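Acyl-CoA N-acyltransferase
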Amino acid sequence: MGGGPVGPKRPLVRRQATKADLDAIFKVVKDGFPDDPGCNYKFPNRDQYPHDFEKWTRLEYAEYMDQPEKFASFVITATEYDLVDEPIAIGVWDISVTTKAKGGDRGINERRDANREHMVAYGEAMTENFDKFFARYGEEQLHLWMLITHPDFRRRGAGTQLCNWGVEEAARRGGWILTVMASPMGKNLYDHLGYNLVGYGTAQVDGEAEKVDIYALEMPQL
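Predicted structure tokens:
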């Protein structure tokens, strides 16, 4: 990816993600996630152990695709420049929040790219904030689990298209609530799209100064 525009820009296209996209999805995560504070907090050694970071990232997204009853996974593709239907953004929606996710622990006890204590603290903060701010909506919500756009394609509407799926699906289901827990970087997009801030929490290990703020936002029923 990269290299700058050549010729007119073509529209970006949203489609369902498949395992054939995993190589491109990993590129999006690798290049698009490091400026997110949560990634630096959980995976500070990803450059030192790139194979671990790739292995567990690919497994994570494959697990999303293996659970269509729980997760709806989409990519935004680009056909311009030197790309042919290549994903440049990935979004994952939790479409059944009361269904327990299947899968492994993402290597928390063996991967070398991660800080185990930070992974635990981040996961606990996410669970605590979800229960505090969104559990009252029960099943009738669509929760945006993950959204990442490759830096070369930001501010082109890819993130908006991925969020728009939730708007369309919430309306189809009779006006469900849209919820998301965002990093400081992602919060700007959701503010722009009309999400309301309902609270925030912090991922932090006891005794450490390092921390990450997590913002809880929701879009009212449409």
